Amino acid sequence: MAQRLQTERQATAAPAIELRGISKAFGPVQANRDISIRVEKGTIHGIIGENGAGKSTLMSILYGFYKADRGEILIDGRATQIPDSQAAIRAGIGMVFQHFKLVQNFTVLENVILGAEDGALLTPSLAKARKVLGELAEEYELDVDPDAMIEELSVGHQQRVEILKALYRHADILILDEPTGVLTPAEADHLFRILKNLKEQGKTIILITHKLREIMEITDTVSVMRRGEMTATVMTADTNPEQLAELMVGRKVLLNVPKGPAHPGQTVLEIDNLRVTDEDGVERLKGISLKIHAGEILGIAGVAGNGQSELLAVLGGIARGTGSVRLNGKELDLTGNHSDGQSRRANSIAHVPEDRQHLGMIMDFTAWENVAFGYHHDPAYQKNGLLMDNDAILADTAGKMERFDVRPPIPTLAAKSFSGGNQQKIILAREIERNPDLLLVGQPTRGVDIGAIEFIHKRIVELRDAGKAVLLVSVELDEIMSLSDRIAVMFDGRIMGERLPEKTDERELGLLMAGVSGAAA
Ligand code: ADP
Ligand code: MG
């Protein structure tokens, strides 16, 4: 009897997953280096690390997508081979991907049973699945309409279908790779409730994210990866965001750039009843009115796709709009004619576009050519129009790269050879050092690592402290909260409200972002 209890206790003590000495190289890149980790049963275990740290590779090994060069996988204490995803599913592992793998023109129910062991498209299995789905929805707040077409569902609901699929296959261990990147704050909250419910029912969850706030909010344990190595595993209750950031980056990082009070001066930009209609005749901006002062950062919060891109595009002179926009009292041309990007620059508007891959840079051209391009108005002439002193541009670019800590600081390297964060620094250097009256900046730190975020935030605050006006568009509420002197929330082409960061919180902003007006101030 005692013997049996003892054995049982040992069995429950075995971690749900144990990885021992996992290594994986892609050619010269050592994506995972001798990684060992234990994930205890019934816990939410976070994995955090900068871009390229090796998180997805490690999870792909666990899910049978990649074969490790070395190392062992133990599930429930037993050494287990996972050569493919079928083996992972048999071992009780379910994966929710960054990019969903659902069939768009199938229903929820059909997607759930597709590929499951009893998953032929037969009435009995559909009926059974309907029943199971109903139970799962009940138990975990995982409600989705089983008969809805996937293509009709919001991303938040599509993600729930992915989770349902895994649970339908009896997953005990659920891996989620950056699940909140595509969600609104309300959807993310709901996802976290689902994850907590799953944990209470004894499921084990691995949550990959680069968002420190999510780690602190929901995980029990957190492992940090840096450059292919597992640098630490700590109890979440025993750590804090600053320590985690330092473990991720390998040096101290300021998560909130220090920033004194704003001293707003005269009105730099005055927008009145600005409207933009897209090529399909859909109105994207429905009468925006805003003011931005010198020495002030106005943050535009909102879920992507609510008109922020159109706002930046029309202010940057690359889209047509109606209404009135005055810069330092002077009316701007809103006809979006293609030479206007140039006249905007002459008017001292700098623009760091959201979509830097397409609008910010020409990827096949060198860093120095990209730095020079801002001086040319017509993309078709950018190459031939370079009747400039190339040596001077090269030297200037080298200086910018050094001041903006671009790595590697080589002006003759093609733009595409730099990481996303370093491309962003090159564009920022080009735009900020032109010393504009107004900086338009969209998603300044999208895809940028935490160390570079600190740097970029400092430069933006410096520009504001130099008396310039900044219009910041970001889908990251943390970024909006820590940089903005004033926050305007956009929803469906309108400004839902303006708030002061010290007098609001993420909850209130989240409601405004979801179109709930009259959210308490
Ligand atoms: P993370 O998920 O932490 O951002 P990844 O695991 O995706 O990191 O990538 C780790 C490293 O391995 C990166 O340098 C990445 O470029 C490289 N890598 C990942 N997958 C592949 C692949 N299929 N082929 C070549 N290199 C890869
Ligand atoms: Mg990844």
TrEMBL record:
Gene Ontology MF terms in the entry: ATP binding
CDD domains named in the record: ABC_Carb_Monos_I, ABC_Carb_Monos_II
InterPro entries noted in UniProt: AAA+_ATPase (IPR003593), ABC_carbohydrate_import_ATPase (IPR050107), ABC_transporter-like_ATP-bd (IPR003439), ABC_transporter-like_CS (IPR017871), P-loop_NTPase (IPR027417)
Keyword set, alphabetical order: ATP-binding, Nucleotide-binding
PROSITE patterns xref list: ABC_TRANSPORTER_1, ABC_TRANSPORTER_2
Domain ABC transporter: from-to ranges: 17-252, 269-517
Pfam families: ABC_tran
PANTHER family per UniProt: CARBOHYDRATE TRANSPORT ATP-BINDING PROTEIN MG119-RELATED, GUANOSINE IMPORT ATP-BINDING PROTEIN NUPO
Protein name (Swiss-Prot/TrEMBL): ABC transporter ATP-binding protein
